[in-house]
TrEMBL record:
Superkingdom of this protein's organism: Bacteria
Designated name of the protein: Uncharacterized protein
Transmembrane segments: 6-26, 33-51, 57-80, 87-108
Keywords: Membrane, Transmembrane, Transmembrane helix
The organism of origin for this protein: Actinokineospora alba
Length: 114
């Protein structure tokens, strides 16, 4: 059984990808879905890495997602897009913190957490 930290991390990354795709659909501009789809693929890689116990890949993928949302939040977009990307960036940073906890570390290394 995977620890709560890993399951919660996977759920947050998956939900964030769905939310970001939904926000892109609200913009109704041609070609705006390309970047959210790329980020959804990176999110899928992160979730797969969490499930297959590849910690470095999961951390790098989630770090890239956090960086991408931070850049979007600092860009010249409508206020609602910047605020939502800022919240998604914070969620991804929280996932990184969750993946660095003791139970998650034990899950990835296979060493029991004492």
């Amino acid at each position: 059984m995977r620890p709560l930290e890993v399951r919660l991390s996977a759920a947050i990354v998956g939900a964030a990808a769905v939310v970001f795709l939904g926000l892109a659909l609200l913009r109704e501009e041609p070609g705006v879905l390309r970047f959210p789809v790329v980020l959804a693929v990176i999110a899928a890689v992160a979730i797969a890495a969490m499930w297959t116990r590849i910690r470095l890949a999961a951390l790098v993928a989630v770090g890239l997602l956090a960086l991408a949302h931070t850049v979007i939040a600092l860009g010249a977009l409508p206020w609602w897009a910047r605020v939502s990307s800022g919240l998604l960036a914070a969620a991804h940073v929280y996932v990184v913190i969750l993946l660095l906890t003791g139970p998650a570390r034990a899950h990835f290394t296979g060493v029991p957490n004492d």
